Amino acid sequence: MSEPLRCREPAVATTQVDDAHVRVTRWDFNPGAETGWHRHGWLYVVVPVTDGTLLVELPGGETMTAELNAGVAYTRLAGVEHNVVNGGTAPLSFVETEVKAWPG
């Protein structure tokens, strides 16, 4: 049996910097909005702009939640695959910096 089709509002991605070394994207989510399934090709750092609750959908049907605290950064290695959903009742935002290259 396949999973039912879901239709969620997309989160809004605004690229702030995209050069040879980094890509910086601000993500803005209404309640229930999602990034869509994606795999990170580079190590990345996330800095929440607002507090909030993420629902993270993982391969194989697993899910987890993560609490965001404004200004408290976290990092993940390249290769992470997921769909990120605003699991709360208020809008949320974060800035994601993907590290493309290590100069020097």
TrEMBL record:
Superkingdom in the source lineage: Bacteria
In this chain the Cupin type-2 domain maps to: 26-96
Query: InterPro entries under this entry?
Result: Cupin_2, RmlC-like_jellyroll, RmlC_Cupin_sf
Which CDD domains has this protein been placed in? cupin_BauB-like
- What's the protein here called? Cupin domain-containing protein
Which species does the entry assign this protein to?
Paracraurococcus lichenis
